[in-house]
Amino acid sequence: MLKIGIITFHRALNYGAVLQAYALHEYLKQCGYEVEIIDYRNFSIECIYHSSKLNLSCLRQNSNNTLKSKIKRLIEIPYLRRLNHQFEHFLDGRITKKTTKKNWNTVISKFDFIITGSDQVLNKILTNADMKYYLSGVPRQKRVSFAASFGAFDIEKDCEGIQELDKFQGLSLREQVSADKMKKLVNKDCYCHMDPIFLLSKERWKKQQKSPKIRQRYVLIFSMNKALGLVKKAYQYAKERKLCTIFLSPSIGRTLKYGIKQIWCASPEEFLGWISYAEYIFTDSFHGCAFSILYEKKFFVEIDRNRASSNRMINILEYFECEENAQSDKIGEVKSNKITTQLKKNRENVNHYFNLLKEEM
Predict the structure, then answer these.
(1) What pLDDT, in 10s, does the model give residues 303-318?
(2) What is the pTM for the complete model shown?
(3) What phi and psi values does residue 46 have, to the nearest 5 degrees?
(4) Staple 3 to which of 34, 86, 175, 308, CB 3.0 to 4.6 Å?
């Protein structure tokens, strides 16, 4: 049985990051592989999400942080501890021992190949140019990416990154424009695959969810930002239909206006439950959009088309023919038959990709 290691942002206190890591692990396990998520710790990512350790060097790292923002991070400590425990519990039994640059070679030696993805693992801005996410030092025959992303990082200007990616046995990126670009830069096939959450069925995800403790029918807002315009739009929509409004975010103090009920410490299982039972969903998050599609919910997605990161959201709306869900004058519905067809097509493409890699081993 082939052994696969996955390196990703599994420790981020971010629903999308943890759920995509879980989905890729479970998909590969279903395919008959022995799989583990490599517990690699990146200082920059740790600083974003884990100030619960009172690591003052994290607070000093970003000189742009104001005193107010640093104080806010310290106030969040009890909340972060609880959230961190819930996220770690969700991935229990799927992670290797703690991995650092010192024991990196020892850990990766037990795997037949290593997958980097499917997050912004190739975004050097986020990782402070940590080349472990480019699998530097890993033998060529073991290097694989899956639905990996550069985010806002411009790979065309990075010779070191291009040289490392040229050594990959299999290249798969999350955005089609990035895949097309890399194909020219390294002169080899580069595939484009959707986020791993689409590799598991709605029924499979529902087995993981926890039902929300609420009796009223509700409109759900899911955002990683303040999203004041989105909140106002959702609240008005709910008010007209006499529904409760729920604001869900993995961060505290996002909005307290309009008397909206705020859920700010939900586990990944509870996140899935809130999505599942919502009457309508308003979001500006990629994974809020993705799970709305997967769960076949009525939803509206707010897209900032001036941001490079919006490409992946536009891509999946087009892929599932849900472009109208981004129009400001209506709440779009998903096309169940289209979703079924496209999910099947996506899984077939992914199966083909991993079968090719297996044949080349």
Answers:
(1) 887 776 677 888 889 9
(2) 0.90
(3) -60, -40
(4) 34
